[in-house]
Amino acid sequence: MSETSYDLVVIGGGPGGYVAAIRAAQLGLKVACVEKRGALGGTCLNVGCIPSKAMLQSSHHFESAAEHFAAHGVQVSPKLDLPTMMARKDKVVLDLTKGIEFLFKKNKVDYFIGTGTVASNSTVDITGDSEATLKTENILIATGSDVAPLPGIEIDENRIVSSTGALALPKVPKSLAVIGGGVIGLELGSVWRRLGAEVTVIEFLDDILPGMDGEVRKTMRRVLKKQGVQFKLKTKVTAAKATKTQVTLTMEPRDGGDSETQKAEVVLVAVGRRPYTDGLGLDAVAVERDARGFIKVDADLQTNVPGIFAIGDVIGGAMLAHKAEEEGVVVAELIAGRKGHMDYDTIPGVVYTHPEAASVGKTEEQLKEAGVDYKVGKFPFSANSRARCIADMDGFVKILADAKTDRVLGCHIVGPAAGDLIQEAVLCMEFGGASEDLARTCHAHPGLYEAVKEAALALGDGAIHA
Fold it and tell me: Catalytic pick from 68, 72, 341, 445?
């Protein structure tokens, strides 16, 4: 094996890992990144965020052409070409992965294809396509997460699929049962419903989108049900039997009662994700993990072993690509002798269904539980002129602010372009801004973002257009 010395070796080429590698290189460090997949970008880019958003966009166009164009005076009879849709999705992924490789070359990051194993706090062994031993001052573990299994159900990526299989179905299933009412389940369920599948979401908890604001959850369930998605809440799936043509699920009420069965052509298991630490050699170097397998880190994202850091899904918290990216930048800057900054209270979360749902900061439930005296400003998209122009009026903007200081504590949006609109609230919160700051900022007319201004105005003397 060859031996090379680095300032930082990153294990994992996903959003957190590749961003950390590039930022560290920009700061003058000698950096290597080890990724076994053979394509950079991790789960997010290859079989997660990016291909799912490509499919969401394509399926949205298909449904719009079939059901909504006529109202605009456009008469068409669309025909689904699933292979072309899938090919477009694959090209989007390929272009972006190649783009990261270009950025590595541009910033002089050494890229190794293979499995990285931590041999010590200063050595990483690589096996696979690349064979090498890398000496390094620092190691960053950014290996992400894997699909969480569901007891009694075996994923075969044929009839019973994970999110990976759901992005590569060869044809539109007549029926799709989605186990799990979180972001992944709702987004992929939306894709296949738009393309013609009968979709049922089965959720163990009281409602969909756990962790989001209660009003957001209720509104999203109502809107998605209107679109044709069926829901079975407080329901536990206990078994799944697959044949060549269908799957039979056995379910029972969470709080007790008789079991029932449901048949579906395809079943998507989307009950969450677990940290990926297989084959990293963490036990050999005594890196501590918690009871759920997540790597423990301190405020500087360093493990109990000096010189070994970890970020992203593998340390828990919000399992979001942008959270991992920010953590990667923090680690790179700390290693380079700078001050890293990470505000976990201003990490936005977005559900890219239609309408979108987006949140940042505290929910009403969290503020009530903490005993915080807060006020609420709300504005519906049905009163927004731009939303009416584009015939996209479901949802609202809700801003939560401290009752005494007016500081924005949270923002929750259901509606068109919610994932873009939330960023105004994120920026306001990052700078400790008040709702008055949003209300007094001039917004172009007509724009969807005027709903944010109006919600902020509602926290004061009142919205203008409500």
Answer: 445
